[in-house]
Amino acid sequence: MRHAISSNYVVYLQIYDIDIGVEDDPITFSQAMGGSESTLWYNSMKDEMNSMANNQVWDLVELPKGFTQQEGIDYHDTFSLVSKKYSFWIIMALVAHFDIELHQMDVKTTFLNGDLEEEVYRKQPEEFITNGNDHIVCKLKKSIYGLKQASRQWYLKFHDVISSFGFIENVMDQCIYHKVKRFLSQQFDMKDMGEASYVIGIKIERDRSQWILGLSQETYINKMLERFCMKDCSPDIAPIVKGDRFSLNQCPSNDLEKKEMKNIPYAFAVGSLMYAQPEGHFMEKCKANTGCYFDNKT
What we know:
- The protein has 298 residues and is of the alpha+beta class.
- The chain folds into two domains: 7-234, no CATH class; 243-298, no CATH class.
- It contains ten helices and eight strands.
- A three-stranded antiparallel beta sheet has the order 1-4-3, with no helix packed on it.
- Helix 9 packs antiparallel against helix 10.
- The two termini are 29 Å apart.
């Protein structure tokens, strides 16, 4: 059983299908309401609150003591399986070879389906507080976003549901099942996205008359360049200059250099590049060097 992917790779997990913008989303209610798209954000919040009500995410109760998440009390296991990249490649190859229909679906408000095993409380969402109940908090029944165990609880829920329909995990990749649209729509609030075009930041292009399927990461790479301020850089035929060597001598050697290095998203960039370099020869060298700059989180 493999652990959830490292946060160093979060950039490619943020490229959800057709989300190709480079602007960062607001992280607080005030930021959302202070922007040019405040109306859209507020309508989205209302939709989210309706989803929480439909999924019976919480009960309103008095606030008990100890209002924090503590390991072993508020959560135990946090890891969640992720599909292997080879599984994705194999599926794409089978789709092209047998000219199979390739569709995708999205589970709406995914984490709100996961059952919560621990006792966890949270404040009522800002601007959505129940009238006359300002002192009341939410006792969670579902693994809402932000909980450390949310991803794992969703995986367990999905596994239970899909297994109850008679599906069996692939012995090589426990994230692969044979999925059926109608069944999933009966179990979860699903959005049918039709034929697959973007999957985890990879664009899928097909010429079915020629039995050809192509994969492109152009959008992902352009967004990555924008994120790391490399949009105007010059292209090169190789990702590394011949003769370059990495060594421990390049690590920060004093407190000042370590402080400066904290502001450089080195591991973040390496993780992003590794996702764009599946063959991995060059990136294996970078990966080995990552620990140098982030040893003991420095």
